Amino acid sequence: MCAAVYVLSTVTGYVLTSALLLKCPNLLHRRKREAFRSRHISHRGGAGENLENTMAAFKHAVDLGTDMLELDCHLTKDEEVVVSHDANLKRATGMNAQVSDMVYAELPPYLCKLGVTFQRECFCEGGEDKRIPLLRDVFDAFPNTPVNIDIKVNNDTLIKKVSELVVKYNREHLTVWGNASNQIVKKCYKENPQIPVLFSLPRVLQLLGLFYTGLLPFVPLKEQFLEIPMPSIITKLKDPNRLTRSQRFITWLADTLLMRKTLFEHLTARGIQVYIWVLNDEEDFQRAFDLGATGVMTDFPTRLKDFMDRNGISKLQ
C-alpha cells in the first residue's frame, strides 16, 4: 500500500512538474536570443510569382517586405556555391547534368516555365532573369535580409564554403541552415556553431517523442528553428480521389501529431521559431498562425502579404 502511494505521488509530481515547465519553460531553460523574427518567408524566393531561386524572385520578395528568403545550395565543379534546388539540372533547365559536374560559367539558364512544386497544376513563367545565381550574389544584394539555407547534399566542402561566405558577409546573426538529414545538420553545427541550425527529420521525430512522453520540458535543445510541413496540404497537392485509405490515415495521423499548438507555444517560449511550409492559400495561412506558428513559408509572397495585412498580422506579434 505504501509503495503504491509513493509511486502515485511520484507520478503525480512528475506530471505536474512537466505541465508547469511546458507552460513556463524559462524556469529551467534560458530563452534563446532571437536576432530576428520571421513571419513572412518566401520559399525559393517565391516560386509561384517568379522563377524559383533567381535574383528576380529574391528582389521581388524583399521589395514586398518579406522577413526571410528561403533558398537551396549546391557546389559546382569549380567549387562555387550556387543557389539551386535540384542536384540534377534536367527539371529546371532541360539539361540532364549534375550541378557538381559543371563549372559555374557553363551552367545553363532556367527554362522559361517551371512547375510550382507545392501548388497543383500550377506553372510560373519567368521574365528575363533565368540565371542560376551564386550565394554571394544574394548576400551582396540583400545584406540585411535573413536567409534560410537548405544544404542540399552531404558535402563537407559545400558546408565549409557556405560557412566561410556567412562569416565573410558578417551574417551569422542573419542566417539559419540545415537539412532533413541529421548528418548534414551535425556537420553544419560542427563547422560553425555560431550559425543557428534547423531541426533535422530524426530530431523532429525525437522532439515529438519527448513532447508526448512529457520529457520535452526537461531536455535542452541546440536547434533554434523548427521548420515542418503541414501534412494536411497533401490533399491539395494531389487529387483527393486518388489517395488511398492508408494514405489518408497516415496524413491525418501525421497532421494530428505534428500540428500541436501546445508544442509550438512551448518552443516559442524557449526562443525557438516555428516555420510551417509550404502554404499557398489563406485557409492554411490562417490555420498556421492560429496554431501559434512563428512564420509561414509560401510560394506566393504577395498572397501571404495581402493576407497578413488584412488580418493585422505583423512580425512583431
TrEMBL record:
GO terms for molecular function: phosphatidylcholine lysophospholipase activity; phosphoric diester hydrolase activity. The keyword Hydrolase applies. Its main location: membrane. It holds the Pfam family GDPD. Residues 38-308 form the GP-PDE domain. The chain crosses the membrane at residues 6-28. It is found in: Membrane. This is Glycerophosphodiester phosphodiesterase domain containing 1. It comes from Seriola lalandi dorsalis.
